Amino acid sequence: MPIDLHAHTTASDGTFSPRGLVEHAKELGLRAVAVSDHDTIFGWREALEVERELGVEVVPAIELSVSDENGKFHVLGFFPTRTDLNETELGAQITELQRERDERNTRIYENLARMGVPVDPRRVREIAGGGAQIGRPHIARALIELGHATSVQDAFDQYLDANGPAYSGKKGLTPSHAVKLIHEAGGLAVWAHPTRSPSERAEVLDFSRGEALLRLWLDWGLDGLETFYGAYSPEEAEWTRAMSEKYDLLGTGGSDFHGATKPNVPLGQVNGATEVPDEVLAHLTARAASSKSSMK
Ligand code: AMP
Ligand code: FE
Ligand code: FE
Ligand code: ZN
Question: If you take atom 1 of ligand 1, which residue's CA is the nearest one?
Fold first, then answer.
């Protein structure tokens, strides 16, 4: 049975609740699904609570936004051997990331107001589902409601993407620091959609530059590469597979499902229309267990 190791919930910018995501995975016949929200583990508890009831394995994960002099990247942390992140330095850093995000959102609201398209932060919070983390896709949906954009993509193109007039960045972690924090917390670090780095870009990275960057990640102790991904072309799928083989990296994969935020990305489908094989999770779990025993 197939699996999906990259999915978002209402804990970040997905539109399915953690429970709803696991239910959807069950409907699709998936054996396992990762809850890999941006910069938060808020969705883990609810998803893990329904794991038994629904008979779908939940893999606790996080997708950290990181940056350094080479650009912006996403790194996935997987925690198949269960850990209480609140007790770790990674947990403390996640709290700091939330604070930076709140300040960044305030600057975006100010920029939009200055441009004559004010959005109400309270409405954005409602759209985000109350207590959850607020991201640009939620601000995008508020802009659509107000008639200033026709789709989430249009809102990014007009206002919110990294070159957009309302954009404001946040500091975040460096890739090397993120890998270290994930390891200290007992997790495995995977460079997410490497060919789509910098992380905001739709076009594909030059592969020779990609390999040079990958060597840096290897020095930092990277465990894996996302070798299956919702939006990969055959060339990207082949390059990531070849790189993971060449450098003995774990190959993981998932759709990057966001529900209605990315309506063209269905759960469980990668590299066009194929599925992530079950054995990927077995490899992940085995490597997590062996790195844990070697740390002792
Ligand atoms: P934030 O974490 O608030 O900065 O928002 C980042 C999220 O916005 C990403 O994970 C994507 O889901 C989405 N996003 C970022 N850049 C774009 C873009 N250019 N077009 C559409 N969605 C984007
Ligand atoms: Fe997202
Ligand atoms: Fe990502
Ligand atoms: Zn993602």
Answer: 135
pLDDT at 20 over 60: yes
pLDDT, tens digit (0-9, with 9 covering 90-100), for 195-227:
998 777 778 899 999 999 999 999 999 999 999
Q: Cβ distance 285 to 80 under 8 Å?
A: yes
> Does ligand 1 come within 6 angstroms of the Cβ of 259?
no
User: Quick one: 95 exposed, middle or buried, by C-beta within 10 A (0-12, 13-18, 19+)?
Assistant: exposed
pLDDT band at 83 (very low <50, low <70, confident <90, very high): confident
Ligand 4 being an ion, which residues bring their Cβ within 5 A of it? 63, 256
Q: Which of 276, 216, 213, 212 is nearest to 250 (CA)?
A: 276
Q: State the Cα–Cα distance between residues 148 and 163, nearest whole angstrom.
A: 18
Distance CA 296, CA 35 (A): 27
Residue 271 confidence (pLDDT) above 90: no
Structure tokens at 84: 């209480």
DSSP 8-class letter at 134: P
pLDDT at 294 over 70: no
Q: CA geometry: angle at 59 spanning 57 and 62, to 5°?
A: 155
Q: How far is the CA of 12 from the centre of ligand 3 (A)?
A: 12
d(CA 174, CA 64): 10
81: three-class secondary structure by DSSP: coil
Is the preceding omega at residue 2 within 30 degrees of 0, hence cis?
Answer: no
Q: Which listed ligand is nearest to 40 at the C-alpha?
A: 1
Which residues, 6+ apart, have CB-to-CB distance to 128 below 8 Å?
10, 134, 135, 138
CA 109 to chain centre: 24
